[in-house]
Amino acid sequence: MTKRPTILITALTALTALLLLAVCNKEEVLPKKPEGQIIARVGNAWLTLEELKESIPGEYAGVITREQNVQYVRQWINTELLYQEAMRLGVDKEPHIKARLEKTRKDLLSAEVLSRGAHSGGEISPAAVREYYESNREQFVRDVFTVRYEEIVVDDLNLAWEIRRNATHEGFRKLAIEHSKFPIPGGPDDNPPYVPLEAIPPVIRTAVLNAAVPSITGPYRAEDGFHILRTVGRFDKGTVASLEEVRDDIVSKLSNITQKGETERMISDVRSRADVEFNIELVPGVDSVSPSPATDGQS
To answer: For an engineered disulfide with 241, which of 70, 81, 234, 245 has Cβ 3.0 to 4.6 Å away?
Structure first.
């Protein structure tokens, strides 16, 4: 849910960048009225229904609310108002603004070239993930007490007891998806998450600490309802996290390393075909000074 407004903001940011870049290639002729259903207009700028739909990734098209779309259009109007006022005042003619626009243009185009030409080389293999984990286990020491559990939360005590009687370790997540007022993420075959103990509400924290491992316990009364818990693990601070627990972090790190390597290779290839000059001795700045060795108080 938290990603949806971000998608709209990202789309608006891209639109704003395009508006800024348009300044660099501004033509005196007035734009033609576009075809399609017009949602909003500011002077000779139009926003069509088709453009609004295209600004939202397909996977979010069915979940973005009308209010979020209205908010997007209002932001578009505000951006156009300010953009057109900047044009009226001649802000785009000011030297420092022209320089910033040119930098924005270069940044956007260079990033696009990278996105087209630099590839991650495919998915990170399970073997690569395990090798990194085994070679860097010291990086994955838990810095807090961690528990592995999941829960079903309902408002009705009778329903809570019925769920408890029918709950099994194999079918717990399915029951949570069907009944819990706070559904656990993922599907019925996913595993319970690892959660820092300090992040668990006090009543549930006590129950998890007192439960056997593994076990299904409850119901426990809390402010938000009755909780049935499935506890499957407790891990002391200072123990090494499991591969499953840190797999996503490792994949992200290896992907970044791979992407960085691909980017460097791409830049090296482009550099080999370009005319580049770098007079490093002319670059200003204070040279870094290495710290002096310890003298034990002697001068």
So the answer is: 245
